[in-house]
Design goal:
The complex is a heterodimer of chains A (176) and B (323). Chain A has 176 residues and is α+β, with helices and mostly antiparallel strands. Chain A has 6 helices and 7 strands, in the order E-H-H-H-E-E-E-H-E-H-E-E-H. Chain B has 2 domains: 242 residues, Aldolase class I (TIM Barrel, Alpha-Beta Barrel); 69 residues, Non-ribosomal Peptide Synthetase Peptidyl Carrier Protein, Chain A (Orthogonal Bundle). Classes of the chains: A alpha+beta (176), B alpha/beta (323). At the A-B interface, helix 3 and strand 6 of A face helix 4 and helix 11 of B.
């Protein structure tokens, strides 16, 4: 049977699932890359509340990947006032069962569309040093280095990367 | 002369703490140019309480870097009290500074940094706890308020003074403004009128004459310089001259500015290791070259720097072609 999968704006009813996905994804992806105390403090409930607040801010964009009625991915974007005309792809996660099918790329493409439609000219993403899979994906899609920094909260060494051509980035999501 | 908690600040010019920028190497360069008070980058109180070793190097002061503050952030009074004690002990700083101004969503939306301005009762508890834990005078940096409809810096400053703060630093924008628009110095003046402790005025000090101007306009005791210093530590020497009514020294020639940049990166390498220092140097070197004509080629080279050898090679090229 063909699976039904779509990317759409997140709804309030998605927040429990988003909280679980985000917490699982952090605790699986970042163990060893960022301090344990940060990961161990995370709970699905705290994450749910975080994303509920995020979604309520009208200047932000929050999208989910829905696969057979379940939330299997997340893309969160907001203005990035540290730079001019800039948006930040704050968070990008795809559940393990949905990985390897290009959904990360499609979520990035959706974020690019949101950024372009919101009047921004670039999309920035932070990637923790050592998260090679994500870094390869972003650089492979044309993201350029902006700067290297340590996250002020968890101290993780990270790259700030940016896509400058939002239309081209949107089109990359159409490819399978 | 200004005195904070009994400690004299000989030059009324402070370097604002800025994460990812004001590390010990850059602070050393700024002190050489006349910064009278410096502060570490902000350090997470939770990281200190959980004994996360990666935070400790951020608290290291330079040789003879006094008076200086170690800055911590967080909103749990118990953790902040413990973190203040650790930060003071590890750094040997003269002050503990509490960050109640960081506007970055990851920090502020968790209730830390400028998020505390939305919860002044908790902010008071945090200040009281840090005063108990620090074992030295405690200062605090905050903004005008969360947004333009909730500006509360005057009451907030009074509450901080009441809770034991030895000085306050006020950035003339709200959290929502981040760094957009002009800083509002009128509110800083209102804060100065409302408290007896020293006030540091921060926001839009970009030119030498801005330092005397902000002090005169606000009545504040110390001018605090933030983004104006990116790639331009000479602004301290120029502001100092402006304050003392001396002729403002010109910016050094490009070759000398490059030498200073290189020295900063060498100091940074000695502290954090060559690899990290060189990756961070990419951003700083681009700032040092801001406004330099025909620097495009070298800016492209700078973003590829990974070793000190690369730094020397690029610098040699700049001196050959642009100086």
């Amino acid at each position: 049977m063909k699976q039904s999968t779509e990317i759409r704006p997140a709804r309030e009813a998605d927040m429990e699932a988003v909280g679980r996905l985000y917490t699982d994804s952090w605790q699986r992806t970042y163990r060893g890359l960022i301090p344990d105390w940060v990961l161990d403090e995370m709970t699905p409930e705290k994450s749910r509340d975080k994303w509920t607040r995020y979604r309520e801010q009208k200047e932000n964009g929050l999208f989910v990947l829905e696969r057979d009625g379940a939330v299997a991915g997340l893309a969160a974007c907001r203005p990035f006032p540290e730079r001019e005309n800039s948006a930040l792809l704050d968070s990008l996660h795809v559940a393990p069962e949905a990985q390897g099918s290009g959904w990360g790329r499609k979520l990035i493409s959706r974020a690019a569309r949101w950024a372009r439609e919101s009047g921004f000219r670039e999309l920035v993403i932070f990637v923790v040093q050592g998260n090679r899979r994500a870094e390869q994906l972003y650089r492979g899609m044309g993201a350029k280095e902006l700067y290297f920094f340590h996250d002020p909260v968890d101290g993780a060494p990270s790259w700030a990367l940016a896509w400058e051509d939002l239309e081209a980035l949107e089109e990359l999501g159409d490819r399978n | 002369m200004v005195s904070i908690g009994g400690i004299e600040i000989k030059t009324p010019l402070a370097l604002a703490p800025m994460a990812g920028v004001t590390d010990v190497a850059f602070r050393t360069i700024c002190r050489e140019q006349g910064a009278g008070l410096t502060c570490t980058e902000m350090v997470s109180s939770k990281a200190l309480c959980f004994q996360d070793k990666k935070s400790i190097p951020l608290l290291k002061l330079g040789d003879g870097e006094h008076p200086a503050a170690a800055q911590i952030f967080g909103s749990d009074p118990v953790c902040m009290q413990e973190a203040a004690a650790i930060a003071h002990q590890v750094s040997g700083a003269d002050f503990i500074d509490i960050n109640m101004g960081c506007p970055v969503p990851k920090v502020a939306n968790s209730g830390d940094g400028s998020g505390l301005m939305r919860n002044p009762d908790l902010a008071v508890k945090v200040m009281e706890a840090v005063v108990r834990g620090a074992g030295c005078p405690v200062t605090v940096k905050f903004r005008l308020g969360w947004d333009k409809g909730s500006i509360n810096c005057v009451e907030f400053a009074r509450a901080m003074e009441e809770a034991g703060a030895a000085a306050v630093a006020v950035h003339g924008r709200t959290k929502v403004q981040m760094y957009a628009g002009a800083a509002n110095w009128d509110w800083i003046r209102e804060v100065k009128k409302a408290v007896r402790i020293p006030v540091m005025a921060n926001g839009d000090v970009f030119k030498p004459e801005d330092a005397p101007r902000i002090l005169k306009y606000t009545g504040a005791d110390i001018a605090m310089i933030g983004r104006g210093i990116f790639g331009n530590p000479w602004l301290f020497a120029q502001c100092r001259a402006a304050l003392e009514g001396r002729e403002i020294p010109p910016m050094p020639p490009l070759s000398e500015r490059c030498d200073t940049a290189v020295r900063q990166f060498e100091l940074s390498a000695a502290n954090k290791g060559e690899k990290i220092a060189c990756l961070e140097a990419r951003r700083h070197y681009a700032w040092y070259l801001k406004g330099v004509p025909h620097a495009g080629y070298y800016k492209e080279q700078i973003v590829k720097i990974t070793t000190l050898e690369d730094v020397y090679r690029v610098t040699k090229g700049i001196k050959r072609d642009l100086c």
